[in-house]
Amino acid sequence: MAESSFDVVSQVDFQEVRNAFSQAEKEIATRYDLKRVDARLSLEGEEIVVESADEYTLDQALEVLKSKLVKRGVHLKSLRPGKIEPASGGRARLEVTFQQGIPTETAKKLVAAIKQQKLKVQGAIQGDTVRVSGKNKDDLQAVITLLRSLDVDVPLTFSNYR
Fold first, then answer.
1. What is the pLDDT, as a whole number, of residue 7?
2. Which of 12, 48, 76, 119 could form an SS bridge with 98, CB 3.0 to 4.6 Å?
3. Which residue ranges in the chain fall short of pLDDT 50?
4. Which CATH number does 4-11+102-159 carry?
5. Cα angle 63-67-70, degrees, rounded to a multiple of 5
6. How many whole angstroms separate alpha carbon 113 and alpha carbon 146?
7. Separation CA 27–CA 34 (nearest Å)
8. What is the DSSP string of 90-135?
9. Which residues contact 150 (CB under 8 A, 6 or more apart)?
10. pLDDT computed for residue 1 by the predictor
11. Is the pTM of this model over 0.70?
12. Contact 4, 120 (CB under 8 A)
């Protein structure tokens, strides 16, 4: 019987991030409370910078961005906001990055959870993905169900199911 496998990955679709960024930028430009304090978003590579007059309005602009990301199907667990820093002119600035791939510690937790189930499958860490393989496809489906029920710090998707 042939060996079946799938990969557990954590990826962000940056086209959807750019679409959500554009929508959030338009809403921030038209909202009275954010227009008045000159709140701004800027996209720098794979990072979004939120800037505003104070922390409160910065949080409001970040919430607008988050709502647009959710509507575009980008999971909020992949957001990695930095610390709020002072910017020029007494303004507040926040850099938001996106988690790509599964961190090593999280991958180890996933493999340990798979081994605890005592199913006839093997979990292997391969860079920033986890490959799960086994002979019985029902066991692989059980592992997918298990991994979806776990509370981890990154969104998990399953690909290359063979």
1. 86
2. 12
3. none
4. 3.30.70.860
5. 135
6. 8
7. 9
8. GEEEEEEEE--S--HHHHHHHHHHHHHTT-SEEEEEETTEEEEEES
9. 109, 110, 113
10. 55
11. yes
12. no
